[in-house]
Amino acid sequence: MSDPQTRQILRQSLRQQRRQLSYEQQKHAAIGLASHLPDHSLIHHASQIALYIANDGEIDPHILAEVLSARGKQLALPIMHPFNDEQLLFQRFRPGQQLMNNALGIPEPELSKPDLVPLQELDVILLPLVGFDPHGNRLGMGGGFYDRTLGGYTPAQRPTLIGLAHSCQQVEKLMAAEWDVPIDAVATGEQLIRFDR
Ligand SMILES: Nc1ncnc2c1ncn2[C@@H]1O[C@H](COP(=O)(O)OP(=O)(O)OP(=O)(O)O)[C@@H](O)[C@H]1O
Ligand SMILES: [Mg+2]
């Protein structure tokens, strides 16, 4: 499953499955995520946490963001780098803050240099994914943004990476490409799954 065509076919199928989830299923998943994840030790001990604005049927972390913010966590959102369009930057964010659509139509805060958070200061990145397997391999939307941004750091330098997903996004096996950055855990609406490596 490492050749680009097979990855693309799998992406389309998984994206379609999550887009077909009903409003009620999405709401249930978002509430479930916000109920169990804040108490998990990986999040409980974190003070700076990046997350994302849901798009394309992704599990929605906006209720989670409100819970985390109420518990005093500092939150950040990814923004597309203004000069290097292949990299992500992370910028401080408070739930309810005004956002603007970026070139991909995804809402992000307006770039403000003093509010940028160096990646190494983040304790956890909650990142979206299209598919994951039981070994922590991750399939994203295909832009390579997270891989390129995270790939410049050693596993020890990187924040803890927790993918957020609907359980229907789990597959038996993903063949990782050499640039794919594996994740440490996945959180669904029901549970957190940690990967040993
Ligand atoms: N570290 C890297 N160095 C060079 N090219 C990279 C790197 N990471 C990703 N790419 C490029 O990005 C393309 C997309 O990567 P991939 O299919 O793994 O995306 P993805 O993991 O689904 O997306 P994302 O990381 O945005 O969630 C690859 O074809 C590859 O050319
Ligand atoms: Mg990848």
Automatic annotation (TrEMBL):
<dbReference type="InterPro" id="IPR037171">
    <property type="entry name" value="NagB/RpiA_transferase-like"/>
</dbReference>
<comment type="similarity">
    <text>Belongs to the 5-formyltetrahydrofolate cyclo-ligase family.</text>
</comment>
<keyword id="KW-0460">Magnesium</keyword>
<keyword id="KW-0547">Nucleotide-binding</keyword>
<keyword id="KW-0067">ATP-binding</keyword>
<keyword id="KW-0479">Metal-binding</keyword>
<dbReference type="InterPro" id="IPR002698">
    <property type="entry name" value="FTHF_cligase"/>
</dbReference>
<dbReference type="Pfam" id="PF01812">
    <property type="entry name" value="5-FTHF_cyc-lig"/>
</dbReference>
<dbReference type="InterPro" id="IPR024185">
    <property type="entry name" value="FTHF_cligase-like_sf"/>
</dbReference>
<protein>
    <recommendedName>
        <fullName>5-formyltetrahydrofolate cyclo-ligase</fullName>
        <ecNumber>6.3.3.2</ecNumber>
    </recommendedName>
</protein>
